[in-house]
Amino acid sequence: MNRIRSTGTLLALFLLFICAFFGYPLAMLVYGAFRSGQPGTDGEFGVAGFVDSYGDPATWETLWASVLFAVGVQTIGIIGGFIFAWISMRTRTPGGRSITPIMITIFAIPTLFFAISWGMMTSPSGLLTNIFGVGPDGSPRLNAYSWFGLIVVSGLKSISVMYLLLMGPVRALNRSLEEAARLSGANNIRLFSDINIPILLPTLSGLAILGFVNSLGQLDVALILGVPAAIYVFPTQIYDFLATTPIRYDSASALALLLIVIIYVLVAIRSKAIGNRNFITVTGKAYRIEKEEIGGWKWVGLSLFVAYVAIALVLPLVQLIIGSFQPVLGVTGFTFKHYAGLFDSTKVIRALENTLFMGIVGGFVATVLAVLISYVALRSKSRWAQVPELIVWAVVAVPGIVLALAITWAYLSVPGLQKLYGSVWIVLIALVIVVTPIAQRATSGPVGQLGVELEESARISGASAPKMLLTIVVPLIGPTFLASWFITGVMAAGSLDIPILLSSAKTETVSLLVYNYYTQLGNGSAAAALLLLLLALLAAGGALLMGVGALLKRINARRMISRGHLVDDADPTNTFDRNESDFDDDPTSKLRVTTAASN
Amino acid sequence: MAHVSIESLQKKYSPKTPPAVQSLDLEIEEGEFLTLLGPSGCGKTTTLRCVAGLERPTGGQVSIGGKVVDNPAQRVHVAPDKRDIGMVFQSYALWPHMSVASNVGYPLRMRKVSVNERARRVREVLEMVGLSEYASRMATDLSGGQQQRVALARALVATPQLLLFDEPLSNLDARLRQDMRSELRDMHKRVGTTSIYVTHDQEEAVSLSTRIVLLNKGEIEQVGSPREIYWHPVSHFVADFVGYDNFLSATVVSTDRQSVKVLLDGTEVRLSTSARTDVREGQKVDIAVRSSSVILGPPAREKPNRFDGLITDIMYLGDDFIYELQLGPHQVTVSIRTAEVANLWPLGSPQVGDTVTAAIAPESLACLPSPAMDAPALLRV
To answer: What ipTM describes this predicted complex?
Structure first.
């Protein structure tokens, strides 16, 4: 009896915490939209913010621009992602095995990298200008500071996201459905138009809406490439309200609310329209899932991929490296001074520390929260146990810049919490809120598969509750936990939209510093050097993760051998091994579900 | 309807692994219902898929209705959609975005049959499989058995020259499987299309086929009528696969036109000649018998092939009693119908430790080359 009451109290506390942590800031955003003045100061309630922002025709132009931007980006993303998913999952194209790791790399690289490097590449002495030359008026033919640049640069990154989301569905396409069509007399074209596309349609349209929603809230590229060309989309408009005096919190909040409403309506339409019409869940025993020989087409596929990697990854990287060694960006010469300068600057050292902190702690906290939320939903019999999951799902669609604004309202308005403002904690809190939904998606599958009987049998076998957690639960979800920690850590470390609003001079992160160097201080070479340093850090994190994964696998294998039994399917500890090999074979199995909300 | 001819068919998936099918020769007559039977990995599905054109053979030739559809040496490969074949898949392979009627009508659509004619034939074939009232339902809303019927209707609708079945019943439960089995039989009697059927279930093979091909490791072990395969297996492998559960090693003492005599630990045993004729005197053989073919009784009347055995274990399985007998050095399993036990021993059935007489009719004994014959000479005793 006592025990039951105490678990009930624990659950209630957990619920309360989740509501406060995730739900409260959003509620405060609504409050802020109806109130004049800055958070934490005196103000009057009213609709001035709405009148101000909705009454301005520029707002509606911004809305139109946002839609154009999102549609353009998603068109590129879905078509490109689908083509590469098909090449990699279904055909025997040379180099096909490298597609997934490269896509993960592109996915993990902060958006900032693409925006800044493309900006540099199309500058008068940039790589692309060298290739495409200058027009009659003396300006580079390709200009990233334009609609073209905005859409192409975001689109290139979006291809990697869509690839990771589509590879599962494309691979899961039931081959016998295709074979049945072939035997019914359908040729390749009919097969595609009658069978494959209709079966994938719910998935494709769902992803299109999801991607569209994400593009609507994306700040980085629009800020770096759009604002200099006077192209404003929602997130940059919100940022503009907050970054230029007079600071108009109410207008920014009103605009943010509009964005959130649009996003929720779209998400609702999506789930209504598609509902359970997801054909991908239809599976069957396929005779084999081998890839097909496509003859000469494989060279077409290979060149497409090589071209993509060149313009999305290699050229930008080369440009950044060149730029980081130039005395002043665009001026020929060779110097180490920018790198030397980085390590001399206490600002940079502090930013590195902050970024590491955000990545490691933020990713960890988000993953722990996500696992707890799924675990509670799975194990608790209370009808309230599903609420935390719902709240986290509600946060998934909230753009970073909007969340940062909401956090400002939530923490500046309360005297006690005000002290957090300007500290590293406020940034951490915001980052955790933004990445938890992603951690939730990454971990909910494996946590959901933790059959209660696995735990019960451990208890019956004599394991205490903590011992059971340590010997059964942790090994089973360990690999997933690591993967989720890494993904969310990378996203937290590379985020720009949260720190740009919430960081103070002392709590700057590397991405914010890069942005400041590049735009405010006009020191592109230092920005390039710093960005490369950030990439190196992320790469080191990735290498560490792979090393740990390999080590765990080896330890596990040795344990098997020393116990003297063969690894077989009936062996429960083998689940761990299987997870691990899943990870090798398809490192994105955890990523795949995750990416929906990202970027 | 078509005659199918497979000549030295070979399919290798990779240079490192042994071929899935090696040098397989098979003639399938018009209207025949031929079953490829064997354990998983024996190459039966690969063979079927080569005939379908879903797999490209690496050697040999396949022709359907006199037309060569595969000959890798001459670079001939006819695409599956050009072969005029109907196929029923193990996983049903119904298109989830189409109704039952559109699933079934799809092969006709591909053959550019007019809309009216299509509707008529879809109705006809759905009636045949008893699913007329489900025409407008989504295919995947139906139960497993119904889905399998839709798949069958789709394979039949265009009256293809050849029907292929890839373990179509293995996803159904036992009851449904029996129903579907007799439906498939009726269907074949009615349409008479040449059919190739793949299964690992010997009961299914025996009840459906006009001829069975038993495959092992990509090669043919035995071809014959269901009766031949069932009662006259030619190898240890076949006997084992079709349910022989007692194998006793013996030596041939004499052969003549009617019978083969073997010596089983000093006891002479007679086998009918149809079991095996190409054995020599003095040869070591295995004789095989099903547990259900052994007759038990009290030690009495003179019958051929009688042995006294000690009961070492009795197991009750409901319909049957299983007796474990010790016959000299051999362990023999005997199964007796429960009802018969009471007939045999009206005064109470024997217990463990009792001795009973086991009789085996000459015609239910199979004589197989001893598996030791396949082993290297050193291992032979």
So the answer is: 0.77
